[in-house]
Amino acid sequence: MKQRRPALALGLSTLAMASSFMVWNVFSPIAGSLREAFGLTALQQSVLVAAPVLLGSVMRFPMGIFTDRFGGRRVFTSLLLFLVLPLLLTPFVSSYATLLLSAFLLGMAGTAFSVSMTYVSKWYPPQKQGLVLGLAGLGNLGVAMSSFLVPLVYRQYGLPGVFYGLAGLILVTAALFRWGAGELPLPEKKQTVQESLKVLRFRSTWLLSLFYFLTFGGFVAFSVYLPTLLKELFGMAAADAGLATAGFVAAATFIRPLGGYLADRIGSRQVLLGVFIGIAGAALLLAFSLKDFRIFAAGCLLAGLCFGLGNGAVFKMVPEIAPGHTGAVTGVVGAAGGVGGFFPPIVLGLLRDSGGTYMPGFVLLALFACICLWLNGAGRRMKEREPAKVSAA
Fold it and tell me: What residue intervals traverse the membrane (predicted)?
């Protein structure tokens, strides 16, 4: 039984993260319909889909610390139960302000990432971290499931069907996790906030945060804004755009474990070298294909594959920065990735309202990928000595 406990922890954590990410992404697939129903501008729509990303990002750091201190089973169960109330209240919203408040509160679902990664990493040795955390990242499929299912349910049953259905799913998931997942013994000496904050001193923490800002931020930004782009640029129906977005998310998610596996074998920096080149190329392809669906789709697929490989490779390095403080590092890096998904939709909305085109946004993405490529090369010879400092602290 003990040999099965790590696998059970991985499986249930992935399930809980997938359910949470369905909630986190719930507004994106129906944003176009909500725009018509509430009379929103392009910028207001962008803010609506980005709002959950904001809270889900900034709260990842404290939630990672809480997981280190109180254990993943307790923190994850509490998080899931918290989500039920805003899910039940959302069908009663009657204005843009209350809709935005609901989206903001449901953003807590995005913190499931740091809880899941911190919880799972404690069950496996360092040499398996890349693959295992990549498998845990399959919880991102929740975004694909919501992209596909939410428009269908909304069309048949409206907001009550969507949000009451998700509330039921979250309650079932909370029960399964509470009574099915194990918990490793917690340290007798609890880490203080000051000890957890020490990870902010390390260059590697900020370098990985920048890389994850690009790879996971890009993944989130495409996931929440791709339905809008497909509907506006190519006139796709909401259900079709949701299905296409689900395909993008699935491709990026399923390839994530491969990124972790390759990082275990050849090193994260080698994987990231190819990833950043690929993202830059995909961004330029997208910038100049806003009227050609086939080329645009190819660019999205290339970007998604690179985002997924990069996510797996980055998180291979996270547990190595500060053993014993994985939750804190996961929170910082995860928060950076979430914030990376918050700004692009707003920037794209501003560009569309002011200049009538999305092209400059994709050019900026290519430029940022080139900056990360240079930093990855510049940091190749940097040996991380800081874990020893943390252990001694």
Answer: 42-63, 75-93, 99-119, 131-150, 162-181, 206-227, 233-259, 271-289, 295-315, 327-351, 357-375
Q: Yes or no: say if 339 and 260 are a contact pair by the CB < 8 Å rule.
A: no
pLDDT tens profile 53-83: 888 888 988 898 888 888 889 999 999 999 9
Q: Confidence class of residue 31 from pLDDT cuts 50, 70 and 90?
A: confident
Residue 189: CB atoms within 10 Å: 7
CA distances from 372 to 179, 269, 393 (A): 43, 11, 31
Rounded to 5°, the CA angle 188-190-195 comes to 140
The type of residue at 126 is P
Place of tokens 């370098």: 207
Q: What is the pTM for the complete model shown?
A: 0.74
Instruction: Give the Cα separation of 380 and 393 in Å (integer).
Output: 27
- Return the sign of the alpha-carbon dihedral for residues 350, 354, 356, 357: negative
Cβ atoms of residues 93 and 352 within 8 Å:
no
CATH of domain 2-180+193-392: 1.20.1250.20
CA distance 180 to 159: 31
Spatial separation of the C-alpha atoms in residues 247 and 249, rounded to whole Å: 5
Residue 334 to residue 216: CA distance in whole angstroms: 8
pLDDT in tens, 143-184: 889 988 999 999 999 999 999 999 999 999 999 999 888 777
